[in-house]
């Protein structure tokens, strides 16, 4: 929410911006294309900025609300980790199916209609995720949920690009920070209700009602127009862009692992009760939020290459700590290190994609975005397959080793 954080190629400040955990860091080409065209001229001010922040917050809540429900869905369907990983592919498939279409929909019908309709779909799908007991039913619910989340992600970023350009100053990082705050709130709300012995369906219904109220409260400042569409949906990466995209793939895979598997690791390997398992993702999201709200200042002081290297090492240490030590406290500490480490890597990589000379910036950012989101799509199945063979701790340890490569790739990526 994962997130998928787009970085508009037409604005250098937007290229530096970042979003939240799991699934909101990647920008589909439809956003890049939409952002490149001029929007209808009208006054954009504080109301539009507030509505944009609320929309990002809602997207974060929606995505994170699913994390505490994962162990319950696994128990309800009776599947193992490998099958659950395949099921979770449906969420990513839904997002990828919807994202390329959203730019054109926003251009035709406006950001407001697209965001509100996708938000309504999220509110409808959340209870289904907590109710479906059959594998086909859960797969369909996950596909619909993923499509709605992907649509919101693209539409709110189109709105954010327009609002930022109208403001004449960098606003994107702050918008995406609200996605992270929403992630904390979503995991806290659903996890807290489950801890208080609410049923998964009750917790999901409460989250859906809260999302609907927030969307309606912030709807007045949502733009009734989008931006012009057009341009290629995808460009094959080449040269340095392929390396940057590969690094993005790993980071997105790691963030997706936290969304889909952190609660299950606490339950299955650390003995934490299912009702309290949502605290793992909440700890990760809180750490990432802190890192993102301080990211611009940190990068300005120490430089992007050093921040990426240290961030990759920090995240790798977090995964290894969570995998190696049996204590739930140590696992939670590892999740915090992962959040802090990953928080600023993606904006640094997108900045590098915008500065490299192997491809035009817009094509490069679109390609890197697509590769990054492929990490979210492939991650659940890959981690599930490894967990089936050697357990979730082994899968988390291998992710830690992959993030060592991200740290080591900092010099090459910045020289691109």
TrEMBL record:
<feature type="transmembrane region" description="Helical">
    <location>
        <begin position="85"/>
        <end position="107"/>
    </location>
</feature>
<feature type="transmembrane region" description="Helical">
    <location>
        <begin position="137"/>
        <end position="163"/>
    </location>
</feature>
<keyword id="KW-0472">Membrane</keyword>
<feature type="transmembrane region" description="Helical">
    <location>
        <begin position="362"/>
        <end position="386"/>
    </location>
</feature>
<feature type="transmembrane region" description="Helical">
    <location>
        <begin position="235"/>
        <end position="254"/>
    </location>
</feature>
<feature type="transmembrane region" description="Helical">
    <location>
        <begin position="202"/>
        <end position="223"/>
    </location>
</feature>
<feature type="region of interest" description="Disordered">
    <location>
        <begin position="1"/>
        <end position="22"/>
    </location>
</feature>
<feature type="transmembrane region" description="Helical">
    <location>
        <begin position="114"/>
        <end position="131"/>
    </location>
</feature>
<feature type="transmembrane region" description="Helical">
    <location>
        <begin position="274"/>
        <end position="295"/>
    </location>
</feature>
<dbReference type="Pfam" id="PF07690">
    <property type="entry name" value="MFS_1"/>
</dbReference>
<dbReference type="GO" id="GO:0016020">
    <property type="term" value="C:membrane"/>
</dbReference>
<feature type="transmembrane region" description="Helical">
    <location>
        <begin position="392"/>
        <end position="413"/>
    </location>
</feature>
<dbReference type="InterPro" id="IPR036259">
    <property type="entry name" value="MFS_trans_sf"/>
</dbReference>
<dbReference type="GO" id="GO:0022857">
    <property type="term" value="F:transmembrane transporter activity"/>
</dbReference>
<feature type="transmembrane region" description="Helical">
    <location>
        <begin position="54"/>
        <end position="73"/>
    </location>
</feature>
<feature type="transmembrane region" description="Helical">
    <location>
        <begin position="331"/>
        <end position="350"/>
    </location>
</feature>
<keyword id="KW-0812">Transmembrane</keyword>
<protein>
    <submittedName>
        <fullName>MFS transporter</fullName>
    </submittedName>
</protein>
<dbReference type="InterPro" id="IPR051788">
    <property type="entry name" value="MFS_Transporter"/>
</dbReference>
<dbReference type="InterPro" id="IPR011701">
    <property type="entry name" value="MFS"/>
</dbReference>
<keyword id="KW-1133">Transmembrane helix</keyword>
<feature type="transmembrane region" description="Helical">
    <location>
        <begin position="307"/>
        <end position="325"/>
    </location>
</feature>
<feature type="transmembrane region" description="Helical">
    <location>
        <begin position="175"/>
        <end position="196"/>
    </location>
</feature>
């Amino acid at each position: 929410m994962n997130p998928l954080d787009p970085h508009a190629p037409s604005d250098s400040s937007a290229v530096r911006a970042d979003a939240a955990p799991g699934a909101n860091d990647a920008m589909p080409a439809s956003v890049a294309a939409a952002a490149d065209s001029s929007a209808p001229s009208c006054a954009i001010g504080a109301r539009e900025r507030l509505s944009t922040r609320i929309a990002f917050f809602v997207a974060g809540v929606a995505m994170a609300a699913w994390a505490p429900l994962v162990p319950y869905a696994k128990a309800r369907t009776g599947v193992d980790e490998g099958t659950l990983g395949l099921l979770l592919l449906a969420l990513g498939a839904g997002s990828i199916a919807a994202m390329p279409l959203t730019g054109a929909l926003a251009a035709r019908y406006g950001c407001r209609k697209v965001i509100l309709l996708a938000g309504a779909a999220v509110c409808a799908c959340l209870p289904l995720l907590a109710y479906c007991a059959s594998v086909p039913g859960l797969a369909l619910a996950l596909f619909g949920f993923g499509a709605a989340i992907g649509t919101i992600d693209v539409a709110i970023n189109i709105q954010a690009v327009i609002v930022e350009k109208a403001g004449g100053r960098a606003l994107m990082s702050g918008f995406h920070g609200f996605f992270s705050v929403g992630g904390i709130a979503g995991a806290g709300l659903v996890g807290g209700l489950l801890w208080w012995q609410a049923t998964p369906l009750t917790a999901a219904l409460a989250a859906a009602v809260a999302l609907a109220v927030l969307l309606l409260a912030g709807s007045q400042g949502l733009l009734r127009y989008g931006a012009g569409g057009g341009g290629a949906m995808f460009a094959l990466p080449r040269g340095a862009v392929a390396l940057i995209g590969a690094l993005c793939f790993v980071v997105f895979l790691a963030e997706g692992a936290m969304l889909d598997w952190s609660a299950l690791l606490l339950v299955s390997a650390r003995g934490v009760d299912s009702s309290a398992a949502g605290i793992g993702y909440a700890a990760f999201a809180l750490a990432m939020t802190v890192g993102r709200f301080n990211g611009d200042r940190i990068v300005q002081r120490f430089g992007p290459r050093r921040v990426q290297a240290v961030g990759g090492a920090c995240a790798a240490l977090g995964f290894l700590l969570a995998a190696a030590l049996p204590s739930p406290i140590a696992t939670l500490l590892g999740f915090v290190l992962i959040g802090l480490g990953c928080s600023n890597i993606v904006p640094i990589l997108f900045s590098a994609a915008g500065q490299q000379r192997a491809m035009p910036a817009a094509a490069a950012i679109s390609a890197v975005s697509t590769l990054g989101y492929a990490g979210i799509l492939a991650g659940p199945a890959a981690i599930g397959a490894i967990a089936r063979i050697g357990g979730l701790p082994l899968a988390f340890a291998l992710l830690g080793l992959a993030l060592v490569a991200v740290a080591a790739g900092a010099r090459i990526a910045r020289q691109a």
